[in-house]
What we know:
The structure holds two protein chains of two kinds.
Chain A: H1 16-26, H2 28-43, H3 50-75, H4 83-99, H5 104-130, H6 134-153, E1 158-159, H7 166-170, E2 172-173, H8 175-202, H9 209-232, E3 236-237, H10 238-256, H11 258-268, H12 270-275, H13 280-306, E4 308-309, H14 317-327, H15 339-358, H16 363-385
Antiparallel strand pairs in A: 1-4, 2-3
Helix pairs in contact in A: 2-15, 3-9, 3-10, 3-13, 3-14, 3-15, 4-5, 4-6, 4-13, 5-6, 5-13, 8-9, 10-11, 14-15
Chain B: E1 4-15, E2 18-29, E3 33-37, H1 44-51, E4 60-66, E5 69-71, H2 76-81, E6 84-87, H3 99-103, H4 118-131, H5 148-161, E7 166-170, H6 178-193, E8 197-202, H7 205-211, E9 214-219, E10 222-229, H8 235-243, E11 261-271, E12 279-289, E13 293-298, H9 304-311, E14 319-325, E15 328-330, H10 335-341, E16 343-346, H11 350-354, H12 361-366, H13 383-397, H14 413-425, E17 431-435, H15 443-458, E18 462-466, H16 470-476, E19 479-484, E20 487-493, H17 499-506
Parallel strand pairs in B: 3-8, 3-9, 6-7, 7-8, 13-18, 13-19, 16-17, 17-18
Antiparallel strand pairs in B: 1-2, 1-4, 4-5, 9-10, 11-12, 11-14, 14-15, 19-20
Helix pairs in contact in B: 13-14
Amino acid sequence: xxADSNVAGGGAGSTKENHLINFMKxxxxxxxxxxxxxGLSFADDAFFTARNLSNLSRQVTIIGIIAVGMTMVIxxxxxxxxxxxxxxxAAVVVTMLMQYGVPTFLAVPLTLVxxxxxxxxxxxxWIAKFNIPAFIITLGxxxxxxxxxxxxTNGSSVPVxxxxxxxxxxxxxxxxxxxxxxxxxxxxxxxxxFRGVQQSxxxxxxxxxxxxxxxxxxxxxxxxxAFHVFTSYKGIPVPVAIFxxxxxxGIYTLNSTRFGRRLYALGGNEDAARLSGINTxxxxxxxxxxxxxxxxxxxxxxxxxxxxxxxxxxxxxxxDAIAAVxxxxxxxxxxxxxxxxxxxxxxxxxxxxxxxxxxxxxxxxQLIIKGLIIILAVWFDVMQKK
Amino acid sequence: xxxxxxxxxxxxxxxxxxxxxxxxxFEARSGELLALMGENGAGKSTLMKVLSGVWPFPTYExxxxxxxxxxxxxxxxxxxxAGIGIIYQELNLIPGLTxxxxxxxxxxxxxxxxxxxxxxxxSETQKILTDLGMNxxxxxxxxxxxxxxxxxxxEIAKALSQKAEILVxxxxxxxxxxxxxxxxxxxxxxxxxxxxxxxxxxxxxEEIEQIADRIAVLxxxxxxxxxxxxxxxxxxxxxxxxxxxxxxxxxxxxxxEPGEITLEVNNLTVVNPDIPNSFKVxxxxxxxxxxxxxGISGLMGAGRTELVEGIFGAYPQHTTGEVxxxxxxxxxxxxxxxxxxxxxxxxxxxxALGLFLDxxxxxxxxxxxxxxxxxxxxxxxxxxxxxxxxxEYVDQLGVKTPxxxxxxxxxxxxxxxxxxxxxxxxxxxxxxxxxxxxRGIDIGAKVEIxxxxxxxxxxxxxxxxxxxxxxxxxxxxxxxxxxxEGEIVSNFARDDAKKEAIMxxxxxxx
Lengths: 386, 510
């Protein structure tokens, strides 16, 4: 994830006193997450156990996968409010397909294409081609998709009969393979950091040491924690592995591909992007399709984990996904943001949910606290930019 | 004379990397029009923003003295309350409201329970308009339905209704017709007689001669030569102060024999989507040759920008006509098509249409030619290659920057423009269209851009340059097209082109 040093060009502090303040500002969400984790570990013995953390990571994946797509959408100054309903519809469709005898390995990709691809292209078509505000189009889809899910099921739940399907959301990669995978990924990450530094030096680019140390430190700590948790409790949950792949693909796309550059350009200045030869209509359509496919994927994982689908699955997920993106530092005005920030944002929300449940905070209060934290995060972001 | 109302002393204003104002000194008296002259980028607009409180007190150095008292504005409201009215180039009226509502915006006459007294609002507005001799504007007109010239009058009326004693006008005639200019000058003369102090920002010599009493010249953020009565200074002296060097080496035009025709435009028409049956560009046909600089001159709003944007595919749904490149008819449906065909367009509005302000120099340089630095299949960007290409352009064009990762918004206008030039050079165009390429940049950078145009022509590129500055067109172009009200009205060869003739065609008096 070292490659996620921002495209936009970061602010480098000039003096030593500034360094610390800038460091705190740049990594405020990360610091908040660490503080929260330490605090919860002291507050409740059950929090920092391999079992709880493994479950927590699995819970984060659903919002996390959607939030990766939401980062791209918000990056181009858009929004997608329909993702929660797409989760519900995808969950219903995949389970119903299997009920009608379609084998799992066909039902899953079919759902991704029909529900994810179909809805995404529909949203993208209206937004990109006719310049209708994304807010309106996806708000409409929020109720359309939910209505479809309810119509298809007649309002009742659909059970899962397949034996393979529950693995997607509830399975584990055996601990032995998990540890090999984790070590391989860690080695690859360390290698890519070193190579990045070498290349920067070779081109006479000053290496931002504090940033490097933070990203390196976070990575090592993250891998160590993951190694501890996943090897002592059953192994890597399958959805966590899926999320890791999605997140990596998101980071890589935004940082290192043409498509990623175009998203930053589109969000930063749409007119200039168009006059620079970017096909803005196609780019937007792709982004809205990607997020719907990711939302459908999240719906499939959720149905698998719950061993069944109810048409009301995913209600309000759009809010958690948007919150993760915004807490992660992506600007709602578009043009700047990172997937790594979103992942931290999603983790923060996940830890908060998990911690509050452990501490026995009443659900009603949980909603209030979550809302306040979103407002605080955005306020902090706005203050910082002043 | 002791009737000095405004004095600015030793004003210094720094932006990251540039000093926009460096020791500005002048004083203005009641009942006079002080012309503030200077080239684009000389610091006129920044000075105005300091005066109007847009840049509040501690962000600049120096003193503003109003009627003998030192003032330090914390915001624009305080400046307004102190009697300073500013008419910006971009008007600040609300189009969907009436003239009266705009003039009394937020200060409407209200009854005891906050209910607006419309009768009084309209009658007071009528009184103000009549006082100023603006008899053809009605208080109930919607601002969007009156001409730009009248809108400007409304702005003036608004400022005066707020008891402005100092009126700053920023290039007020740039969008006006001749008749509107005459009306404006009539009102300015009346205001002078009423004792209003006016600061008039412009670089049009003819206007200054007509209405200015005294003149101060700004160059590179400095007032050059103090304040001089207009009777005591010649045009040449004003230009010398503005430019600070012999005008002859401003335009290093190199002579080449133009080659065969590259770009051919036939009957290009751009409709005006806002008004049915009206055109922004009407039946424009012209050719451009390999190795020539073709100038397009004309007044603001003559359709020059729309013509080249039409060629570039900026609004395909409103454009008809034929564009041929090297004999082949192009089917341009978007800027992307145009770029792929070998046409580049450097836009007039750099901030809104050209730059990604909060992105790096590298990002801005490669955004229109990402294909050249990325893999074909997945579009994976090769960072080393990108850095290499960007560095070459930064060196070649002499962009002054600490690094290619520097955010472009922190550079000066001239350096930003050089980066954009690099961006388009990197797309290797056959036809390079530049819309006002030297607007808002300092003279040094201008000359560098002219030299670059020469080099491009030498390499066989067809260069088309739109410019509102006649000396620039006359100095740099091999051939000059003049546009008026959407049509190409004349075509001058370099040797036949005279300032007066171009102006006459541009104003429809040819």
